[in-house]
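Bench notes, bay 3.
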Amino acid sequence: MQKTTKEKILDAALNLFAQKGYKGASVRMIAREVGIRESALYNHFKNKEDILDTIVSTLSSSSLSLISSSSSIEQSALKGKKFLREFATSFKLLSYDDKSEKFFRFMMIELMQNKKIRDIFLNYFLKEHLKILSKAFFIMMQEGIILSSDPMLMAREFLSPLFFYRMQATLLKLDNESSSNTSTLFEKHIDFFWDMISSSSP
């Protein structure tokens, strides 16, 4: 299926953001990448910030789509370890999704110099994931599936290694090195973490 001009603009912008950062990628460069006049780009987006906001909205909604609704969290949390495996798998798959990977690289470039991107990072990568996990852990505690503890601290302890493994995979790809070993770390982390929190563990 052929992409629309708007979709081509978003793809080109994401490519350039991942390579040059937000400031380094001008509207003119984006338009040239698509093969349209700069004036034509403004028929689809108000400015570069509007392009970025659209990219963020699209990627953030898709990355959390499998586990974001309150009802699905309440039901999925009852699965215990299986829920954590599903969560980690969806997180891992973002590392192998081309668009998500490019956006992750873009954020790594911008974090130290762009407050808007820092805010996006804190919400897109941390706040929403922690909210989902802490709620799930709280439900598991209530049901006696896992040991009682601070659900937010537990969420942070579970999520932090996942983020680290994702960053490691990104760095390996940048140097054209294999990230296959990193992929298995997601599964090992789940087993290790579950053994520590499960109410049925010795």
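Next record in the batch:
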Amino acid sequence: MLEEALKNAQLREKVGRIRLLLLDVDGVLTDGKLYFDNQGNEFKAFNTLDGHGIKMLRKSGVEVGIITGRTSKLVEKRAADLGVTLLVQGREDKFTALEELRQTFPCALDEIAFLGDDWPDLSAMTRVGLSLAVKNAHWQVIEHAHWVTSKNGGAGAVREICDLLMLGQNTYRDALSHYVSY
């Protein structure tokens, strides 16, 4: 499926330029549900496939960052566990947050991919080189995406994007070779 998508010359060209993948959290790295206990403690479930994809993508030379409208120690811990240092929390204006991250990781807008699921993500998605939506994103977000995952947020969609980027940049086989001998 990913190889089929990359037969589209325009998508392949966009994928080839990406140096930074930015991710929303709720609905992208998670299933979008907010879990609280009776004391108000928040819980989030992250997909291990997504986490490993992020690690492999970073090793391949594409940096990963997170921009989220909510603030959570859980997200801070997950980012640290994955080696993601580009993190902005508590910001609904995703494009302004993106611009702040560009001060730390300078790159052109067309070298950035953004994976989102809802309206707050559109301010960044509509300005970057590769706008991406999870399968269960709001229909307006899907309408503005260059490509939509076959997986829902929190269910391997981020891994799908990591694989897409590595396949399109010819780094996938090298990443896989650490696990499989050819």
